[in-house]
Here is the input.
Amino acid sequence: MKETQWPLWEIFIQANPGIPHKHVGSLHAPDAEMALQNARDVYTRRKEGISIWAVESKNIVASAPEDVGSFFDPANDKVYRHPTFYKVPEGVKYL
Amino acid sequence: MQTEKDNKQAEFDFQAKIDKGDKIEPKDWMPERYRNQLVRMMSQHAHSEIVGMLPEGNWITRAPSLRRKAILLAKVQDEAGHGMYLYSAAETLGVDRTEMLKQLHTGKAKYSSIFNYPTLTWADIGAIGWLVDGAAIMNQTALAKGSYGPYSRAMVRICKEESFHNRQGYEIMCSLSFGTSEQKQMAQDAFNRWWWPAIMMLGPSDDNSPNSDELMRWKVKMESSDSIRRRFIDRTVPQAEFIGLTVPDPHMKFNKETGHYEHGPINWEEFFNVIKGNGPCNKERVKARNEADKNGRWVREAAEAYAEKHKKN
Ligand SMILES: [Fe+2]
Ligand SMILES: [Fe+2]
Here is the structure.
């Protein structure tokens, strides 16, 4: 059998109930099940998590840093999406 | 195609980002020299964690109690984890892990000089945790503030795990120092042998590192080696005195005016000689890694066969 490089997996960990999973790093594993087991051994030796997601790196679609300008442009001129844009008469409460 | 002018602009933006304190992420534009330097640092650092398991692994079966054995095992497992974090951080810049391992196994890759010294007695395990992990913490805390995102995040994670390494080492030294006279002698002997290599592992003197300015500007290097070394010495000498150990440096003295300790001359010739491959254990370490790779092969093959079988079902 020849040595092959196992697929790369991105690992996301939820530290506590109720909060989102967060990217912690990556690792190599021959399949999903072993990716999870490796992730447990590599990234949660001190109870850092209660849930792990493993996603094969090749399946991640990412925006390109050189495009950020035009890509996020639509939000730039829409200040009216923020509550601070609106004037509220003095003395009015709970708004 | 990128013109000369585009490149100048990109480099300017890159530096501005770093000056602002932003992190550089894997797909961001970066100068080639920045990329190469980081690949070199991260892979050397990863190799150091992996080779670093060997001197301590040597004592796992001979730890003096079950408590000490469990602790040492956990520490060595942490070092394996550190190696994994760092290889994966290096991979974000497009280097292949198989390639990095090949360089380690063929003896081409460099790793920290400190791991080429032997662990002769149990006290060496104490001295390593206390001094070697202690020095590594100083270095890594600085690196955690570095500009490359994946490296800096790996450092933050590693630093969190290191303080137990440091403390368990000092605890061993305490027990021995306050034990029988033979035990105290053993602690002093380990201290004598590890002190200078620990001082040296923080890297050559500042006037001996030609690229320092650029690396500092790029926040690849965060603090000069001499400055980290000074802090290490200032913190460690009182710890030694507290448990009655003598620093093996007849010139060591406290300067009341500066508030710092001053050490005697460092034998850099020894340091460069060990780096070149002539330390007491260089050959043994590379051989041990090659054997581990060879002996672990059936496990990797079994994992692949298992994955293959489950794919079909
Ligand atoms: Fe480590
Ligand atoms: Fe450590």
